[in-house]
Amino acid sequence: MTTRMQTAITLADFVWSDSPRFSETAQHVVDAERLGVDTVWSAEAWGTDGIVPLAYLAALTSHIRLATGILQITARAAPMTAMTAMTLDHVSNGRFVLGLGASGPQIVEGLHGQPYARPLERLRETVDVIRLAMAGEKVEYHGNQIELPLPNGQGKALRIGQPPRPTIPIHLATLGPKALQYAGAAADGWVGTCFVPETSRFYIEQLRAGAEAAGRSLAGFEIDAGGPVAFTDDVERPMRGRKKALAFQLGAMGSPTMNFYNDAYSRIGYAQPAQRIRDLWLSGRRDEAVDAVPDEMALRTSFIGTDEMVRDRIRAYSAAGVTSLRLQPMGRTPAHKLDTLAHMIDLVREVDGEGHTHEWQRGHRPPILGDGTEKRSYLADRRDRARH
Predict the structure, then answer these.
(1) Across the strands, what pairs with 66?
(2) pTM of the full predicted structure?
(3) For domain 6-235+301-387, is the CATH number 3.20.20.30?
(4) Which regions in the chain score pLDDT beneath 50?
């Protein structure tokens, strides 16, 4: 495990609704890098692709890691994924992290027109081919789902036409027991999307079992997890927002018969509320579905409350084995979100024992959600001065 808790942000928290132009989003990431954020994650579901935004950011940043969270394995041929990863790692001077996942049947079959049969087998074969390609080997592979080159055709096994890059980290977003074991056996990190520190033993045990079966340990293995961040004395408003997100995840992100997120939360102690939320959502009673999300579930999967409450959540994630906190700062504007992010990074470092305070945070507090005021941030003032 890494000795210092790392921090990460997700592009989705600053893009589209807040910033109509991507250049503005890019500036938020540049500011986050200056705050000390270690990684920025892109997203790829049924909206933006996961690569183009990171390529843009590679030219504007110098040390923040650029990670896909996640690329869908059925959206591209495995060798193309390897070529893309190697290219982005090259143009970013070795800062790329390849996050991969199987996605779900609604997107895979509905948007990409690919069968969703045996997703773990597909993931395993995809990672095998990517590792082969990044190592500079000829891409010849004979699996159940991937056959390269095609038999009885004119193709031949080829090497990727650029220098090998075998050390690009691969992080996997997995949830089921066998898939978690595979991540522990074959990946460099795990993207935890349904993570509750107090009930995380299931995940850690499966990851460790996979690692041990492969003859390795989890030393140096990254675990990425986190949630929304809001500093407030009144948790009701931000907690309501977190409940809406959880209700959507538990009720809408999947088909009526298959929802991996609902299954995941059910495995770690939330089976009864997860089933009720799903039933309410699918019957069109969405406000009731939000109401059915337990307060405990919302607060344990977020960093909402006073400084001391947030410190306790940081300690809980650290004790559970998380090595990188994936932070989703809440706020009315991107500038407010950056203020919240800056204060959160200070608290993470404080809990880590570093106690560093940023120049623009001395004597400055992030805006309190729901206080009805608009506060001017140091970062906004600095950008305005730079324009004149």
Answers:
(1) 40, 96
(2) 0.89
(3) yes
(4) 1-2, 16, 355-365, 367-368, 370-388
